[in-house]
Amino acid sequence: MRIRKIEIQNFRGIKKLSWNLPNQNIFCLIGKGDSAKTTILEAIRCAFHPQWNLAFNDSDFYFCKTNDPIMVEILFGDLPDEFCSDQKYGAHLRGWDITNFRLHDEPDDDDELVLSVRITVARDLEPKWKIVTDRNPEGVEFKAVDRTKVNVGLIGSYSEKQLTWAAGTALARITDSNNLSESLVDATRAARDSLDGQRAGALKSFDAAAAKSEGVAKKLGVPVKDSFKAHLDLSSISIRVGGLTLHDGDIPLRQLGLGSRRILLCGIQKESLDKKHITLFDELELGLEPHRIARLIKHIKDDSTGQYFLTTHSPSVLRELTVDQLYVVHKIADEVKVIATTGEKLDGLNIQGQLRSSPEAFLSTKVVVCEGATEVGFLRGLENYWMKSDYSPYSYIGAVLLDANGASKLKGLAAGFKALHYDVCAVADGDAIKQFSPEDADVLAKRDIKVIMWSEQLALEQRAMLDLPWASVLKSVELARKSGMSVHANVRSKLQMGLDRDVLKWRESDDLRKAIGDAAKSSAWFKSISGGERWVEIIEPAFNEVVFQKSDMGIKLNQLRSWLDHE
To answer: pTM to 2 decimals?
Structure first.
């Protein structure tokens, strides 16, 4: 079965959400903390919870407002014949136009047959599951036994229960047993007599599931020291609540590392006898090294039977995904939006390339698109200075510096990230007007993108040498000289007059300032991230001077800081 649409109201941090899903298997949700990514996964889990006694409390309501009921409605298709029969939900089938994302209450000929499950929770905290239509809004009960058949599993904060044969666990679903409770009673009797002596009979189905799990573990790189088998976990009180657990030899697998347990559980979920499954994987990267992240994601990509909903804060995860699998979650006013990273508005943003080179930008809330490495290095150095003045670091405010690798790419990148609802600032030189012009800056400004562009069509180095105090200009020249630059020759080539070889004897003039700026730009004195950082380190005392703060550069650096601090 496959989820086609998700609607959520008044559930935890979500006041309202409506998301039409394309026909694909993998959906990776990213976004800043508290953007409701995990809540979306929890909503799916609740809608298909396999037991009737799902507990809610007041904090599950949006802002604890219990007068506004929780409502989660999920449209799901790829239905089994059983669900379409008149004895089940055949009278409540609807039609889904998967190309145009249109729902028809009465299915059209070309529509996919779908069902709408709605779970509601009112002040009494009692969940009610219904299969609903517009023609029958009261719906009919969606029974727990049928919710189980949708085969939804959540891999989140690790629960030891998941590697036991308790009701509803992934291990229970892959166990070939007509009556799991009866099998557990048999296992209890076997334990009373001699567990291993009865293994070939009472534990046959459990050991078969353990063997499947061992095969999954080996495929996914989880270490197997002996062989997986069902065994009593002596720390458990009752076999009925999970005392029969998966072991590697005599060692309970609950003692595996966090990452190994989660990756194994993902594989077991795939091995469900029902084949088709919906797996919810919260914070996929937890406990896993990058190479095992890559192996797990390959396993997920190769699984054509499952639909996966992932969340992540890891660049390693993003690098393994394709652009059509990535969705950005934002809270906008009272509504949560899930935004695909593909579409016409994103034509200027090579997202697949950015996922490889700068995945951190997609995990931020504010993106500062810099024209080149000089700007990135300069702003990194500026961050160090600001932190000494008790300003918050970029990481605290969720800002990431992105190297556009040239002025020609800056407009497209800035517009693309804005289309994904990030806060965006573009930092550009003013000297390459054919690649990024004042008109381009105006276009971005109209899209609510902050633009920092140096006046008089100057590059960063040129603007700085005109606006910095003279002492800081000379420090800049000396830094370039110590870095191996032929500063005298560089500046002399830009100046129509003689020049002393001793930098400290240079006398301030507008022509000399201009020549130094031109030389710094053309000879790439600071054109690297490390070079830009070192440059700021030696000139940062100038930033406190009143004269500099009133200059073009000083004013625009203050504008950048104000933009960074603005919520």
So the answer is: 0.77
